[in-house]
Structures are given as structure tokens and as C-alpha cells.
Amino acid sequence: MRRVDWASLKCGCGDSAEHVPLLIEAIITAETNQDMIGYTLDGHVEESTIIFECTPPTVGVIMAALADDFSAPARGVLLQTL
User: Fold this and answer.
1) Fewer CB within 10 Å: C terminus or N terminus of the chain?
2) pLDDT tens by residue, 30-65
3) In terms of domain of life, where is this protein from (predicted)?
4) Structure-derived torsion over alpha carbons of residues 14, 20, 17, 45, reported in degrees to the nearest 10
5) Would the pTM of this model clear 0.85, i.e. be above it?
6) Using an 8 Å Cβ cutoff, are 45 and 51 in contact?
7) Mean pLDDT throughout 15-19?
8) 3-state secondary structure of 10
9) What's the start-to-end Cα distance of the chain, in Å?
10) d(Cα 50, Cα 65) in Å, to the nearest integer?
């Protein structure tokens, strides 16, 4: 995630994508669905079928993350995002 200049990318929320790595990290480290409350990639990385500047690097981060072991709820959220 550190290789990407997130601040220079546009997020779906209208701000820079600087906060997207924080959202991804919160989801990856969540053990339960409750741990993910308030952390979503919806509207940041994609909205319906619309993608944003930050979408391609986010997909790369998600694909790399899926090779690791983490909770089933977090894995489900990331797979749904893809």
C-alpha cells in the first residue's frame, strides 16, 4: 500500500484517496462484522458499476491481501468489493 501515492488519487467520496489504505487495513484486521462497522469501501472504490481513480491500485492491494490468512467476514467483504 505504501507504494501508491493515495493522496494524488481521487476517491469516490470526492476527497483524495488518502484514507483508503486505512479503510482496507481496518477491514483486513477485523475479526467480526461488528469490527468493520464504519469501515467500508463502498462509495470510495466503486459505486454500483462506477469506478474511480483509486480503484485499480485498491484492487491490487485486495488481490495481494487475499493471499494472506484473515477472518472470513473480512475476506467476504473484500471479495464482494472485487
Assistant:
1) C
2) 999 999 999 999 999 999 889 999 999 999 999 999
3) Bacteria
4) -60
5) yes
6) yes
7) 97
8) strand
9) 17
10) 23
